[in-house]
Amino acid sequence: QVQLVESGGGLVQPGGSLRLSCAASGSIFAVYVMAWYRQAPGKQRELVANIISGGSTNYADSVKGRFTISRDNAKNTVYLQMNSLKPEDTAVYYCNAYIAGRSTWHSPSDYWGQGTQVTVSS
Predict the structure, then answer these.
(1) Could you write out the DSSP letters of every residue in 73-92?
(2) How many CB atoms lie within 10 A of CB 3?
(3) For residue range 78-91, what is the model confidence (pLDDT) as tens digits?
(4) Alpha carbon 108 to chain centroid, angstroms
């Protein structure tokens, strides 16, 4: 019953900021990787950023210098701070996590949140 729940999306003007949050809950043994993806209408879902337990991060070239991913391991929560937002950032943002359940610690699985809409428009 592992679930990911996103929050923080909304409408913002170009140049503005938003912070997305995603909390994992359920019978969890370990959360190895947490990530944010996004998907705009008519386009494929793409990786925005990810972060592993040790803190290493990766970013899409299009968001480097503007977005920051972070996590709170004690709360199984990942954040995406989005600054200097552009209209092309408009998309549904999805939380993703690679998680091992307590009963299957040796076999992690991908989990997805329901998505949160981010719209950047004047």
Answers:
(1) GGGTEEEEEE-S--GGG-EE
(2) 12
(3) 999 999 999 999 99
(4) 18
